[in-house]
């Protein structure tokens, strides 16, 4: 792997913000997991889904960033084919699973606002667990065929991936065979996982808005919308760069330079994971209160 093609001289400088964001992502999401697991008042459906998102963010950034930094710092771009395929599978698996978690969080907000009196009875711990298992199972069955799709191809000498990490089409383009099946499967994967999730999220929020604007009290409406604010920010942060990259690769042609594609792809695996815990920390009072308690205890013991 070559890192960011055409920007090799700037790799060290680019690595500094990426490394900082990776540290913030791992530390912030790990701390968020700690808060949710250790505070009983946070053992509610919304925060249990948030803990799943935090775990997915840690894994997403950790699967890609250490190798990326090794390329930037030590020019350690070499990787075996098996390791590259493994990274590819984990990357796509976590991405699809995180999309499903965001859909589950949208459903959580829908139930909380449209059926507040039945919220606890609908989203029981058993149901939340089953939703988490369903997200993992769906992601597995969607991403597992990628292994066979890249191993079925014949490779005849090309071994340079113009990227900082291994992803499906980057590996497939090294083959001498036709990769039409890989291209079609990639589009089907995007259509029936990510695009379907986005449509269902939009439907959830359309129903939420209909319910909110039927509330007579203005303060109650603002409070209901406020509970969705952090989730909407996270959704935009997750899907906007993903759709930009997808559309640019297929319809952008040569109008967008390759190094811009790769740079945005690198930022994508560290920027949302680093900002998600900050967004929820700023916009969620219960998490703010728990953070204050933890730091007060630390100050007392120190």
Automatic annotation (TrEMBL):
Cellular component, GO annotation: plasma membrane
Keyword Membrane appears in the UniProt entry: yes
Regions crossing the membrane: 12-35, 47-76, 88-107, 127-151, 183-212, 224-248, 260-280
Record membrane topology: Multi-pass membrane protein
Organism superkingdom: Eukaryota
PROSITE patterns reported for this sequence: G_PROTEIN_RECEP_F1_1 (PS00237), G_PROTEIN_RECEP_F1_2 (PS50262)
Stored Pfam families: 7tm_4 (PF13853)
SUPFAM superfamilies, per the entry: Family A G protein-coupled receptor-like
MF GO annotations: G protein-coupled receptor activity; olfactory receptor activity
Keywords: Cell membrane, G-protein coupled receptor, Membrane, Olfaction, Receptor, Sensory transduction, Transducer, Transmembrane, Transmembrane helix
InterPro entries referenced in this protein's UniProt entry, alphabetically: GPCR_Rhodpsn, GPCR_Rhodpsn_7TM, Olfact_rcpt, OR51/52/56-like
Gene3D superfamilies: Rhodopsin 7-helix transmembrane proteins (1.20.1070.10)
Cellular location(s): Cell membrane; Membrane
G-protein coupled receptors family 1 profile domain ranges (all copies): 28-280
Function: Odorant receptor.
Similarity-based family: Belongs to the G-protein coupled receptor 1 family.
UniProt name for this protein: Olfactory receptor
Source organism (scientific name): Tupaia chinensis (Chinese tree shrew)
């Amino acid at each position: 792997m070559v890192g960011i093609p055409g920007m090799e001289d700037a790799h060290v400088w680019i690595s500094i913000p990426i490394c900082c964001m990776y540290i913030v992502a791992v530390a912030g999401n790990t701390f968020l997991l700690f808060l949710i697991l250790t505070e009983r008042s946070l053992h509610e459906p919304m925060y249990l889904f948030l803990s799943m998102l935090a775990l997915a963010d840690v894994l997403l950034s950790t699967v890609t960033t250490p190798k990326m930094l090794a390329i930037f710092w030590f020019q350690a771009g070499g990787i075996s084919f098996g390791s590259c395929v493994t990274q590819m599978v984990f990357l796509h698996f976590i991405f699809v699973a995180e999309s499903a978690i965001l859909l589950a969080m949208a459903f959580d907000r829908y139930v909380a606002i449209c059926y507040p009196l039945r919220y606890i009875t609908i989203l029981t711990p058993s149901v939340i667990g089953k939703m988490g298992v369903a997200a993992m199972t769906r992601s597995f069955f969607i991403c597992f065929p990628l292994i066979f799709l890249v191993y079925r191809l014949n490779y005849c000498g090309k071994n340079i991936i113009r990227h900082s990490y291994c992803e499906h089409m980057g590996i497939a383009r090294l083959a001498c065979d036709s990769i039409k099946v890989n291209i079609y499967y990639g589009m089907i994967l995007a259509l029936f996982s990510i695009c379907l999730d986005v449509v269902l999220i939009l439907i959830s929020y359309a129903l939420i808005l209909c319910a909110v604007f039927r509330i007579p009290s203005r303060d109650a409406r603002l409070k209901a919308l406020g509970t969705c604010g952090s989730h909407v920010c996270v959704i935009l942060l997750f899907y906007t760069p993903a759709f930009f990259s997808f559309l640019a690769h297929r319809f952008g042609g040569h109008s967008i330079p390759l190094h811009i594609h790769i740079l945005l792809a690198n930022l994508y695996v560290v920027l949302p994971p680093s900002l998600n815990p900050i967004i929820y920390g700023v916009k969620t009072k219960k998490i703010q209160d728990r953070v204050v308690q933890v730091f007060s205890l630390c100050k007392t013991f120190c």
